[in-house]
Amino acid sequence: MTDHIHIAITHPNGVKHFTLCPTRKKVVQTFALVLLAVLTVTFASLYLLSARSTEAEAAVDRLRQERAVLNNEVAMLEQKRDELSQTIENKDVELTAITQRVVTVEDMLGLQSVAKDASLTHRLDVAAINSAVRYTMLQLIPNGKPIESYRRSSGYGSRTHPVTGKEKFHMGLDLTADIGTPVYAPADGVVEYVRPSRRKGYGNFVKIDHAFGFMTLYAHLDKFNVRSGQFVKKGDLVAWSGNTGLSTGPHLHYEVRFLGRALDPRRFIKWSTDQFDTLLENEKRVSWGHLVAVVENLVETQVQVANMPDPEPPLSTAQQRETSEAVPSKVSM
User: pLDDT above 90 covers what percent of the chain?
Assistant: First the structure.
């Protein structure tokens, strides 16, 4: 009887007794163990699934956040792409405008020989050099009016002198102007001399030496604003017109000379950027081709120097000492 299991169940109607034989006992024990194992595995599985679900939800949240960040980055990249596209479009417009300007400048400078398919940099360099050549020549060689307003009363060439009545070659222009009219330098130069003379010949006059053998002379002046040996720039005030010397009325006598030979000042007064080739074509007593070649060589040299990289600054004494100490000296055996 010891191998049997007795179970008593109490209820309102009394007590019921159950007896399990060893075989049933084993079955119940086995069932209980299996049930316990199943419950343990089930709870363990549920715990693992819950943990994994939490991790999955956290991962999903991270992915959502990363997606939001990526969406923002994509939006920023798209904005930058649009900005770059707009910038490129603007640059294309600017490049087209620059190219058109280069073509216009080439036409103005007479650079038909420059190939239109040449690089824009080369065309800009050529245009810049030619423009610089013209600017340099107009800065150093007399051009434009020496006084702002005048009425030409006597031209260049043979004439009867209004005072002596003799036939004589007039080497300049007589520009009628009131006494005290400002007289300006038509180009850079140096004042060779200033001569005051109220009664004789040219009266008060100034002579300015310019580059390449050119000079200008201003006569019948009232007062001077320069002195001998003074350097002047184009447009500087030189003197004031007057009525000194052999003169029948207030005016400025203006001459342009090349190597001492008088040239027609009217051609130089009309000479400008817009009428640049006119003087070169009409004034045959100047070897313009050689002069232009000299100025071109000068300008090209300046452009090359301007495009050269800046030289490295020299080493200080301390740096030279450190360099010499860093390099081992050779020991002769």
Answer: 38
